[in-house]
Fold this sequence. Notes:
By secondary structure, the protein is α/β, with parallel strands linked by helices. 53% of the residues lie in helices and 8% in strands. It contains 33 helices and 15 strands.
Amino acid sequence: xxxxxGSRRKGDGVPKxxxxxxxxxxxxxxxSYDGTNMALxxxxxxxxxxxxxxxxxxxxxxxxxxxxxxxxxxxxxxxxKKKTIKSPQMGTFMGVYLPCLQNxxxxxxxxxxTWIVGTxxxxxxxxxxxxxxxxxxxxxxxxxxxxxxxxxxxGGSYYMISRSLGPEFGGAVGLCFYLGTTFAGSxxxxxxxxxxxxxxxxxAAIFVAxxxxxxxxxxxxxxxxxxxxxxxxxxxxxxxGVKYVNKLALVFLACVxxxxxxxxAGVIKTIFEPPDFPVCMLGNRTLQNHNFDKCxxxxxxxxxxxxxxxxxxxxxxxxxxxxxxxxxxxNNVTMVQGIPGLTSGVxxxxxxxxxxxxxxxxxxxxxSNGRHDPSQDIYLPxxxxxxxxxxxxxxxxxxxxxTGIMAGSNRSGDLRDAQKSIPIGxxxxxxxxxxxxxxxxxxxxxxIEGVLLRDKFGDSVKGNLVIGxxxxxxxxVIVIGSFFSCCGAGLQSLTGAxxxxxxxxxxxxxxxxxxxxxxxxxxxxxxxxxxTAGICEIGILIAxxxxxxxxxxxFFLMCYLFxxxxxxxxxxxxxxNWRPRFKYYHWALSFLGMSLCLALMFISSWYYxxxxxxxxxxxxxxxxxxxxEKEWGDGIRGLSLNAARYALIRLxxxxxxxxxWRPQLLVLLNLDSDQGVKHPRLLSFTTQLKAGKGLTIxxxxxxxxxxxxEAEAKKAEQNIKSSMSAERTKGFCHVVVSSNLRDGFSxxxxxxxxxxxxxxxxLMAWPGTWKQSNDPQSWRNFIETIRETTAAHQALxxxxxxxxxxxxxxxxxxxxxxxxxxxxxxxxxxxxPFLLRQHKVWRKCKMRIFTVAQMDDNSIQMKKDLQMFxxxxxxxxxxxxxxxxxxxxSAFTYEKTLMMEQRSQMLKQMQLxxxxxxxxxxxxxxxxxxxxxxxxxxxxxxxxxxxMTWTKDKLFTERNRNRECNTNVAVRDLFNMKxxxxxxxxxxxxxxxxxxxxxxxxxxxxxxAHLVLLNMPGPPRNRGGDENYMEFLExxxxxxxxxxxxxxxxxxxxxxxx
Length: 1058
């Protein structure tokens, strides 16, 4: 916000959320609020605009169609010629009702509905129509709810689903809808060619069958050639000018409506005067009426009996004594009226289904003379089934005739009031078309003879379109009308599909599709059109309308299924933003619609259904894995939140059973001065330990106050998240700003996690520089963290030399993970190597368990017991029992303890200057090194005190020898004691002795191990000895490359029970 002084105050650094309807232009930023009325809010004007300016922007908002932005930019270059863009002006009737009507009524109605009625019978046909129309009506109700829940920009159904169900579902469904629309283009083109070659110009066929058995192949090859040419022509038309396609849309729609009116007119006419379309029958078999004029075997001309053209088709000569087909000899030729009329009572015969296999002869109810095998006669000029028919196949073929309900929502950008028009227009269009289909099924069954209904290509009526024979005034009305209707629908599919693909590509959710987002200067999607034509060609090469129809049924059903799912999810979740203006919806209706879509998919074709689901699943997983991060406030995210809340409440009810226990980690990370992660290998180790299972919280503490350190905290969080991503650590990041590190770590240990999803283990790196650090607070924080985890009953893992741990790309060869099990603290030591070995980094490592036996223990029995324990735990590990004797305390131990105490004393004298303190520390270090070297020389000549394998005799001799030694210890120590040793704290001497002896044994046995796990001794109760405790741990871990100190959380974490 600008002030009179010209200075501009910034907001609080909070990035402003992109609003879907407020376009912040540079001009807006210059608005100055000179008045004093709003001075209280003046600092927030940048981030929170005044309500008046918000309303002003809303009033000026225009919902432009897809690609309009590019048109605007193209027009900018024209300077003064720039056209003004009109606001959308289409109403419900022109904008939604008519486009839906045109898209729904089409090729299947004209080319296949009569055949479906004849094959399935009126009752089953009504069931098919009822199923499919119910499915689209329920989907339309769901779609209306989504479409009226806020502004729907251009992009229609894809936009609605993606914004309701998220980018993954949106991308999957959008591409399904795209493939459906593309295959619909193939189907319309095949329909166009079928009408052209079968009914308009049959002589144009390139491939002509010599024999009847080759007719099907010839027809398919003709479809492929002509279909490809037609596709190329349509693609060129779409490329050159979409505006012509849109202008012709009304012409194509007029063709459809005129054709339907012609059918109804024809039906009414049959009551008074049925049209004359005789069907020639031989016995009860229907004959193809192509190659003969008269339905007679013989004819009398000039008092002479002569054979007809029909005779020549069944006999080997023209004479009356020629040898003829046996069925031809046994049965008479009769003529039945193809269209007996509405009042003829033929409806009762057409009520039931007449399914049959490929090649089945189309027969009527009349009985034929003699016994004959129909399979011998299928290559004679009879009308036969060209495919095997059954109920589910007809569902798949019929379903495309009810698709097209999205036509209105796809034009949402052109509507004056999309929220009002889409529901009314779509539901009215579905009601109208459903009425048309139901009446057509009944009227076809009531007017047309059954054999003619089952004659798919009208062979029995001289190759006329069956539905055309019923129409008035002429069959050509329907033939021409359906031809243009199919042409128009094909063009519109080729226009709509590339735009849909362009919308998906521009959303950026499927990276490899981004090239299809580009187009011509005016926004026309050129590359998308090429891909669409390529996919369309696949459908044309299939060549059979009956084979392509179920494919696009699958894709449309998948799309409708997700529309219903989106509505059901949003309704059940009661999302605050779910406030549709359309009120006549219910989650149960959406759920019923979804179930119906799924059922229809498997009814139509179970294998196509599985393929379509696999395609959608692959797209979903691909977008999830590679897609751009998009947050669209979708319902699936709301569903996840609800599910998470429910699960968390359930988890809180009881602590997890030992069988379900796994380390839920809080990883305490250190950052450098640039907020970069100091030890990324700690995250690698976390990944290897967790393998993506359970909870991981990566925490860090920044010293200061939140108001001053907010930016640093955000940067730290970003850096940690990018490190987690690089190391493939799945979990959450938690950065806390606290007045001091000690309190920050304490807060994290206490409060990280939520409800039952809290951590039970803490992982941190060993403070390697604690001796060099001038600030004792660093190691004090470390010890306090140990105390706090113990108090919180949480396990603690401390990684020593963490930077030498393997990365996720490393593969450790043959080696061991050594566990030193000194004290039992819940079985963490056993569980961790098992979990690590699940990861490919550690998979080849073997597990070894060492345990320490005291003087009075029977080590042989201990080994047996431990092996049995591991057997019951189902863990594979080598077992060794190591004996440690109560031998005398060495001079090295005394020296080491003395140096430790002197160092502690020295650090306590705070008046020492920093340089003096460093010099003293260095002096102690030098003495330490020198004495260590001397002791090592002595140690080489000393007796071996540690034995690994035992026999009974050896055991007793060793015990006696040790007892003799122990009696002399006190006497010997008196003579060897140096005067300064006498003042040492004996407790510290004993602890140092344990650390040194245990370290000797561990280094001796496990120096070559890939990882060593040890019990971590607890810190002293008296805080005065904290620095000594650090020294003990340092001595214990000396000489080990990779070590993990483990401290249990006070509960059993591993069990022998199933």
